[in-house]
Amino acid sequence: MKARRNKKQVPSFRKLLKTSKVKLENKLKNKQFKQQSTLKKYRKEQRKLRQAVKDAVSKKPMPLEDPKKIRPGKRIEREEEEEEEALPLDMMDADDLQLMRDLGQRASFLTRDLSSSEPVHVKKRKHERVIDKYEKIPRTLQTAPEKELIHLLPIKDKSGIIPQTREKPVIDSKQDEEEEEELELEEEIVEDPIRELTLEEHLIERRKKLQEKKMHIAALASAILSDPESNIKKLKELRSMLMEQDPDVAVTVRKLVVISLLELFKDITPSYKIRPLTEAEKSTKICKETQKLREFEEGLVSQYKFYLENLEQMVKDWKQRKLKKSNVVSLKAYKGLAEVAVRSLCELLVALPHFNFHNNIIVLIVPLMNDVSKSVSEMCCEAVKKLFKQDKLGQASLGVIKVISGFVKGRNYEVRPEMLKTFLCLRIKEIEVKKDAEDINKPKKFMTFKEKRKTLSRMQRKWKKAEEKLERELLEAEASESTEKKLKVHTETLNIVFVTYFRILKKAQRSPLLPAVLEGLAKFAHLINVEFFDDLLVVLHNLIESGDLSYQESLHCVQTAFHILSGQGDVLNIDPMKFYTHLYKTLFKLHAGATNEGVEILLQCLDVMLTKRRKQVSQQRALAFIKRLCTLALHVLPNSSIGILATNRILMHTFPKTDLLLDNESQGSGVFLPELDEPEYCNAQNTALWELHALRRHYHPTVQSFAAHLIAGAPSEGSQALKPELSRRSAAELFQTYSMDAMTFNPPVQSSSSKKKSEVLQGDLFLNEDLNQLIKRHCGEVTTHLPLDFAKYLKTSLR
Questions:
Q1: 347 pLDDT band (50/70/90 cuts)?
Q2: Helix or strand or coil: residue 354?
């Protein structure tokens, strides 16, 4: 008979693959759970067994208790039991009852310790001491009062649920009574009243306290500076003084601590960013020096973070104008503390752009640039400008630009113009320089394997490989930022700047931000994409024609247009004649009053429009501008006159044929039309620069020398040539050098001494005899006051 075949087939490999991972994991978990449960049972049984053995060993018979100290509840229960079990006393004789009482008072087997192996009846020894007798006397134990327990939430562990309890604190009534008695005694004792200090004594006391605090701060700071790694914990002690509670010196001490911590962080902070350690780095074994350095870095970062939080809290307290519960610092003192905190944040922004939490400082500073307080706003703007000027890599500048752009957009472009004026300090022009350097010194490309195989032998390939490896190591050792990375950062920064500018031009054309936008466009116009040029020029022209702009804003529009055309716009065939006409027409809006500051922008515009675009400027246009500028120099301040005359000197050198304006005998066709607004058709070649003769007698010596120099034809050599300090400077630099903002002349102007005439001219001295006779006749007549009749003379004139 054949063996019965097993119907259950072995699963194939394909079916095993189909088994899901979840099933396998569940099976494994069930197996582990069963093993754990069996282990738990075994441990529980062992624990119970050990506990039973312990109880059997340590179990002692309960001693007799003092019946007086048994609780009333237990006493009643025992009495009931005794009544049930005891024999009735009325059935016993008086002698038997007395015997039982005597036996109860003796130490018998009832009070004997059963655990001892001593026989029951021991013979009394003569040398038995008194102490041993005392020890054998039975005594009752004092039962401690049971303590109440408070049941807490249980804790779950691997072994199971562990119940948690805590003893309820027992209030001792005796202690309370003693404390009340002490308080009553203190009230009864009349204390001597504290003598009030005078103002002078109070100031002396305050000065002493302040001196002590200063010495303590100085000691901590010097200890940290001497050995930062060992004394990093003292930073915490110094920072805790920011919470000074003495109202006499609280504000001053806090300010001193803020400044001291600022200087300390600037000195001891490393020149790299400290990153948190990974789990693998924490678990590895390291030497003592590395461990000490790690502890220093961790302590420094944590204390720096807390310091920044304290500064932020000071600024918030000032903004919210809320008194603290301690009431140590008054509301007036909050502003002083906040200003010190803002100044510290600004210095950290500039001094530590590479260190941790720099982005957090930027987020704090940017809103304060638009603060109501002018001093705080200027402080923050100056810090951002300083950061832009010294930032070579561009990474910190990019972070600030992003936050400013988002802030301006969030406030719907209602911010201070100074925020956007900070963009003018960006170092974006470096891109052009770096590009040229990159073109000249292109990075060396390493040969591919195919190229080596074609051109080099086996030995040469081996040498080449070693050489390339060495070059790569040298490049890594340089650790210099690549030009491409800088270019990428600068490009991203400029994109954000232009997006902000174009949004304002599109949505907020009447905003006070427009001058800053136009000034920024004028500076960075050469970096704008050529595709935007046509649209941008149309927008600028429409702004000028609208008439909503001030004179300075219209000058910014003209300047922006010509900066666009002087850069990449050279390839475009655009004639900016309308911008020339607008500038020529509005030159006489400048005067010695409020618009005198606009002369600086005018000088920059003239440099871009006439000097740099000399090939596109006609001679008629140059003559018209030179003539009108000389007329303008007569009614502006001295520094403006010097700048305008310096521009005329450059134009006369750039366009040599304009010297015909200095020739009185030259004749041209037509008549000069000074009131015409078109520079091409005003016939400026038919006039002369007579204004230079008036400027030659100007009260400012520098204006006199410039006028004499131009009359002589602006020579570069000879007696009429300018001094090197005047000829080598640009017109804008001369305007700033001779500025009158300080209300003084540079150089000082000599006071004109009025010459008094010693003798009065008599009538005989006149040459004309008829005039002499007329004077004598009128002087000899008696003065009579007659009514004036103007109608009489009017009638005669009509006839």
A1: very high
A2: coil
- The secondary structure of 77-143 as a DSSP string is HHHHHHHHHSPPGGGS-HHHHHHHHHHHHS--TTTS-TTS---SS-PPPTT--HHHHHHHS--PPPP
Q: What is the pLDDT of residues 186-197, one digit of tens each?
A: 554 444 455 677
CB-based contact 629:644 (threshold 8 Å): yes
* Least reliable range by pLDDT among 216-230, 242-256, 298-312, 406-420: 242-256
User: Domain extents for the chain?
Assistant: 202-275+287-356, 383-435+473-523, 571-738
Is 571 a residue whose pLDDT tops 80? Answer: no
* Token pair listed for 214: 């200063």
Give the whole-angstrom CA distance, residue 114 versus residue 98. 28
Contact (Cβ atoms closer than 8 angstroms) between residue 360 and residue 348: no
- CB of 251 closer than 8 Å to CB of 337: yes
Q: Return the H-helix or E-strand segment holding 160.
A: strand 160-167
pLDDT of the residue at 387: 94
DSSP state of 149: E
Predicted TM-score of the model (pTM): 0.60
Rg (CA), the chain: 51
Q: DSSP labels for 558-607?
A: HHHHHHHHHTGGGGS----HHHHHHHHHTGGG--SSGGGGHHHHHHHHHI
* pLDDT tens-digit map of 712-744: 988 988 888 888 888 899 998 999 899 888 788
Query: What one-character-per-residue DSSP string does 482-545 give?
Result: PHHHHHHHHHHHHHHHHHHHHHHHHH-TTSTTHHHHHHHHHHHGGGS-GGGHHHHHHHHHHHHH
Q: What is the C-alpha to C-alpha distance for residues 50 and 56, in angstroms, rounded to an integer?
A: 10
Residue 53: pLDDT band by 50, 70, 90 thresholds? Answer: confident
